[in-house]
Amino acid sequence: MTRKMRGGAILALSATIALLAAGCAGSGSDNPGGGGSPTAAANADAKTITWWHNSNTGEGKDYYDKVAKDFEAQTGVHVEVSAMQHEDMLTKLSAALQSGDPDQIPDVFMSRGGGELKNEVDSGVTRDLTDVAADTISKISAFTGQYTIDGKVYALPFSMGLVGFWYNKDLFAQAGITDVNPAPTIDEFNGYIDKLKAAGITPASVGAGDKWPAAHYWYYNVVRECPFDTVEKAIADKDYSDPCFVKAGDHLEDLVAKQPFNDGFLSTKAQEGPTSASGLLATGKVGMELAGHWEPGVTGGLTADGKVPSFLGWFAYPTFPGQGGDPKDQMGGGDAWEVSTSAPDAAVDFAKYLLSDEVQKGFAELDMGLPTNPAATDSISNETLKQLIPVRDAGGNTQLYLDTRLGSAIGNPLNDAIQQVFAGNPGPQEIVDALQNAADSE
Amino acid sequence: MTDDVTTAAVAASPATSSGPAGPATRASARGAGPALGGRRRSGAAAWRKRAEITFFVAPALVLFFMFVVWPIVTAVQISMFKWKGIGPLVDFVGLQNYVSVLKNTLFTDALTHNLIIVVVSIAVQLPLGLGIALLLNRKMWGQGLLRTLIFVPYVLSEVVAGVVWRQLLVPDYGGIDAIARALHIPTPQQGFLGTPDIALWTVLFVLTWKYLGLAVILFLAGLQGVPEDLYEAAQLDGASWWQVQRKITVPLLGPTLRTWAFLSMIGSLQVFDMVWILTGGGPVGRTSTMATFLIYQGTKSQAFGIASAASVILFVIALVLAVLYQQLILRRDTHPDQPRRKAKR
């Protein structure tokens, strides 16, 4: 009996020790302090760099695999590619950055700029590229503004697009709207809504359930009503008292009062399935939708034949009479490559290579985005997407989506307040108050 | 978080209860032997007993600390900092996060929604579930099929059920609106999930649909425990069906009802999946719960300090309610010989 018990005891003891060891190992790597020594990883293996991107299907994935191979052939540096679904990539990236462990943080990864990038700069995980990538930066300088913090460039934008109205040419024709102005005034735009309604067509879809698609209307009104510098100054000073911000809300209230949106827009998703805002546009249920340069890709995934609908047209966000902002200014955003502080120099070379004429041309030919390298802008094959380039490059400023720009701690309360206006609650002043309060408590 | 507590408590309890029992019996058996140097011997035995207890409890304790205590401590620690999820914890703010959570109307609204869900779940599912269980307990045609049908929603994954209901409730294009159109019943323009005043009730309807099966199955199981001879005796005394249910079935079902209500209460406080999928807490926050609030703050707003503070508050509320319920209501089931019960008799 005793013997048997002792045997069991030894087993239990070893199990305890094993568990304890496992526990310690687990807590060790989870250390949020993120001490680690970056140099150790940097010197570890400069012959291999890691690259995370989100082109995880079809031609885009194949193209990026080829790009990595080409770079390897030219330099002898092996690129370990991780192609992930966008949301997965964001989750994994934030976990890796939280760990502070240089072994886990990829050497080259995607950035969306704004508050997210600022967080990363503040915590010292991302590399200052101003000097090391000066040539590339001068080539794409029109777009680096959103990735510049305190005069230093922290990411190289490879795709920069615009938000505007994607519309159904067939339904517009059916409603008797024959000449669609590529840059309409608000009166012309309201005319489109009236004509579509008269023809029994739901004028527009909006995924207000996801908040950001609805918020884009207010952001764009800000771009129209507030001079670019006013917005920049407001963000820098954390002071949103300029009346143009309230005016943006007034325009939004006017639009909501016209009831141009699909039934149930308050719970409609942005891009999920055929009953989402993009789905309704893709399946010909609504006349138009306010969305970014990604829309052809999204609608293409929501049609029965998997092709981008042929009826898709594009026009810019309407302008208001006597507006404060430059009519050439637009709202948009893009994707950029960041290099981690723990990465070897080869990673910088790779990021520069991704912005080269050669790589950007291939990127444009496959319609993977709107290239930032001017040498590649003529290579875009999709005709509708091509329409965005002259508007984007007309010389105005491109304001980043404000929720991304301000970071989610301010952006989310702002979007919540904007959604209230969509729900029919009074709010031009409340939107500004929510923005101001969130900025104050930052 | 509370889920962890219950699982850990379940995991820990067999070890703690069986641990001391074994060695104790052995020790007393040994004590009955010849008393040679009794004092020292018994001292050594007690030490050994303690060592043995420690030893056998250790694995469970390690797991408990790793998966319950450590996460709670970490959450409390993070709740004292302003932390965006990257970099070290440096910006210590003390209890400020708790103040801003409790002052935030989004959180107090979410708390109110949770309390509504707790009360409505019990108030609706208890009579409904009991009624169905009593009906299904009678011998009748298709009994097995009916029981299965009632239980199926509970078996479905919450995510699957949520997605299906979401699709059904899509305005204009969903199944519910199609049926309403056929019957010429008007439906809200913003849909059942998009109209601020209706959304929470729609969510409650889906939750009831989902969890009624559990109540019915538990009550049916409880009914099997009511002795048949009591019914026979009642029949002999000429009691009506209604009297039998009221005087025999329901009182004897008490422990089952109380346990079910406890599970329902804790579940309602933590409700997350279904709400997240159906509405994401919207429209305009009218269906948010404490869990959706803290997930939104943590994963979407990168306000990990605020999210941790909210999670600690949710934990405390659930813990306090659980302990109170245990002490005031469940005690009569777990400790039937306690004075309280005796005094009542």
From TrEMBL, chain A:
Signal peptide annotation: 1-21
SUPFAM superfamilies per the UniProt record, alphabetical: Periplasmic binding protein-like II
This protein's UniProt keywords: Signal
UniProt-listed PROSITE patterns: PROKAR_LIPOPROTEIN (PS51257)
Top-rank taxon, per record: Bacteria
InterPro entries listed in its UniProt record: Bact_solute-bd_prot1, SBP
Pfam family, one: SBP_bac_1
Protein name: Extracellular solute-binding protein
Organism (species): Xylanimonas allomyrinae
Lineage: Bacteria, Bacillati, Actinomycetota, Actinomycetes, Micrococcales
UniProtKB/TrEMBL annotation, chain B:
GO BP term, example: transmembrane transport
Region Disordered, annotated ranges: 1-39
Domain (ABC transmembrane type-1): residue spans on this chain: 111-325
UniProt topology in membrane: Multi-pass membrane protein
UniProt subcellular location: Cell membrane
Record-annotated membrane-spanning stretches: 53-73, 115-136, 148-165, 198-221, 260-282, 302-325
A GO term from the CC aspect: plasma membrane
Extent of Low complexity compositional bias: 1-33
Keyword flag Transport: yes
Protein family per UniProt: Belongs to the binding-protein-dependent transport system permease family.
Record's protein name: Sugar ABC transporter permease
